[in-house]
Amino acid sequence: MNDPVVIVGAGLSGLRAASLLTARGIKCMVLESRDRVGGRVLSASDPNRPDLDKFDLGPTWFWPQYERAITNLVKELNLDTFVQYNQGAMLSERSLSEPPERHVLPDNPYSTSIRLAGGVQSLIVAIADTIPPGVVELETRVTAIRQDEAGAITVEADLADGKQKQVSASAVILGLPPRIVARHIEFSPSLPPSIIADLRSKPTWMAGQAKAVAIYDRPFWRDSGLSGFVSSWVGPLQEIHDASPEIGSGALFGFFGMPASTRRKLGEDKVEELVIDQLVRLFGTSAQNVKTILYKDWANDSDTAVEEDMTPLREFPSYGQPPIVGEWEKKIIFAGTETNSQFGGHLEGALLSAEQAVVEILELKNKPL
């Protein structure tokens, strides 16, 4: 049989796996529930100034000194990068009744964070361009994976027009968050309880988070010797960074300390109002001159988060490969950043998991590594 390897999810892991497989001459298809590729990678434009650079509402950085897979891939794809701006003082906001404290950090206090020109979406686009047309099918939501007594695999999916699709597969790579797999995909025969428990135990990275980007004409805070880096105990943003592109405009982005349930109760308009109020407290009245606010609450994204992800993470999760045993061994392979034990939660983890999945497929098909 010449059934394709079916990859579920067109995020970074799924696309990288498809790119590597097709380069090796292995037939595959990628089924993606969203109407776009990228998964949790999302780089958005200012709707009023689409000519400006894009701003990341998902992952933002990588670290070349530690992360070989993404560093090598960025070079291979000839993508432009630049260093995260961190010159100047940081602010520490501990109380609403006192002004923020200003701290001058020593040179290179942290590992150098690297950003991609055009946002991380530029990496997604470049990988997608290496995949032949027709391999990726959008708005195709996988609902079930079945295996008959002879071991033949069928993947079932719902289409946007209400129709259903069935695909025969030689193997399946699951490039989805483990909790999404456990919640939304039916397996027949059922996955063993040990695997289901493992999938449910892995919090989806970023699923309880939201990001806001405030776009300005220019990075005015730099005039005051500020780096744009803020640590806040009073919020709503608990960590803020300079998100300005190399040229063209200024921007600040922040991660929320406010729980997902609170954001949901307040609503997007009120949350954005609180964000601007905080930026004015920190950076002065110039921060009122916001041109656009971009906002993405990943907790409201049903392709990313499940109810268990609403609880804020208190410590870094324990990530790694689920223990596949029994009838599904060598039939399904897990990929995605949550399945990498060393770099779980990073873009690097997503790429390494894709590479490992491809190694397993090559072994199954007796292809040279």
Automatic annotation (TrEMBL):
Residues that span the membrane, as ranges: none
Domain Amine oxidase: 108-362
Pfam family of the protein (one): NAD_binding_8
InterPro entries (alphabetical): Amino_oxidase (IPR002937), FAD/NAD-bd_sf (IPR036188), Flavin_MAO (IPR050703)
Molecular function terms from GO: oxidoreductase activity
Superkingdom of the source species: Bacteria
PANTHER family tied to this protein: AMINE OXIDASE
Membership in a protein family: Belongs to the flavin monoamine oxidase family.
Name of this protein: Amine oxidase domain-containing protein
Organism (species): Sporosarcina luteola
